Amino acid sequence: MITALQILGTVLFGVAVLHTFLVGFFTKISHRFPKHSFLHGFFHLMGEIEVVFAVWAAILMGLFIGIEGWDKAIAYQKSLNFTEPFFIFAIMVICSTRPILTGARQLILAMSSGLQKILRTPAIATDVFVVLTLGPLSGSLITEPAAMTVTAFMLNAILEKESDKLLYAALAVLFVNVSIGGALTPFAAPPILMVAQKWNWDFNYVFFNLGWKSAVAIFVNTLGLILIFKSSLQKGVSLKEVETRMAGAQAAIPLGVTLLHVVFLVGVVLTSHYQNAFLGIFLLFLGVASVTQSYQDSLRLKESLLVSLFLGGIIQFGAFQEWWLSPLLSSLNEFSLFVGAVSLTAVTDNAALTYLGSQVTNLSDASKYSLVAGAIVGGGLTVIANAPNAAGYSILSHRFKSGLSPLSLLLSAIAPTAVAFFCLWVL
């Protein structure tokens, strides 16, 4: 039986989704008031996409308490799993440290330099190709949030004087590639992880049904971006130039410090499903970061917390969507389910979508594939479509002078999403 609270949860979730498309409008309103006034602060807060779902989730929980009482509200909170937001907070902080970023940049630079010598391709174009292919594909090993963080920072270093069209196109390709880039293994992409154990999807099944097709789509998307924006990319900065600048401005990082950071990164990744374990490792990492301060930039604690807040808000709404999502998913044939999953992912986190789908009984093997493939294909359409997108947005948001337009991102993501759609359905 559908309850009034479920309907309320769906209505407020819809309002929150609509709000994400209006953040630029609220930001503009905030400029009409004195900088330190209450109204300026309020509208500026409403213009921060990371806090949108948290604000509406707080309103929902306030109404929950008023309707059902405190005890039931607390019981609902206990039923939720916030492991993913905490994990993304920890992994984003670690991956944004100078030793990790420097090591990743040097590795990508070495691979790019090798390709440039073999293929005699332009430096910046080759750098972008390696960053937007190797970075997302590494998500199958180090998890998608870690891959998103490192890749977004690399992209941020390369793009210096760029047009809005290039920015949106690069962000769209980044989001789509990361969403499908974790599909080589069954443990790295949240939408696959949600169902892999229940449906007995092992490494062979995931790689041969989803992985190689995703890799093809990633290569095509990246090549398309480079060919379309070839002239604009030449205004960027090559990774070799970035490395030269960094070497002249910062102290050289001892190999031992870099390896220690890698150990912490691996430790957090290996314990990513055990909240107490990776938080303990992360707290120890904070101590190490404080004693290696001369080799660090400021830790991105605020930005990482905002991303976690964003995801926590989405999780609060998840259970209230089951009443309409589950019947819808169970009523569709394979192709309709694939198309529906791509579309629904734009307005709800793809991991939540596959989790709800896993609760539907008697799904055929073809329907299971359609659901998961559609969920990862649609993961680049919006910031909320795939959990790691919030991390990428946080890193690159300052590039958008008037703020990120969700509609412009959606339109820019149509082409790379169509490529992924073709590869995962036709190939």
Could you give a quick summary of the protein structure above?
The chain is built from 23 helices and no strands.
Question: Would you give an account of this structure?
Answer:
There is one protein chain. With 427 residues, this protein is an all-alpha fold. The protein has 2 domains: 4-79, no CATH class; 84-426, no CATH class. 75% of the residues lie in helices and 0% in strands. It contains 23 helices and no strands. The longest helix has 26 residues, at 203-228. The chain is globular. The two termini are 41 Å apart. The model has no long low-confidence stretch (mean pLDDT 89).
> How many strand elements?
0
* Helix percent band: over 70%
- CA-based shape: globular
Mean pLDDT: 89
User: How many strands, what sense, and barrel or not for the largest sheet?
Assistant: none
Radius of gyration: 21 Å
Taken together, the total number of domains comes to 2
InterPro entries: Na_H_antiport_3
Protein name: Na+/H+ antiporter
Keywords: Membrane, Transmembrane, Transmembrane helix
Pfam family, one: Na_H_antiport_3
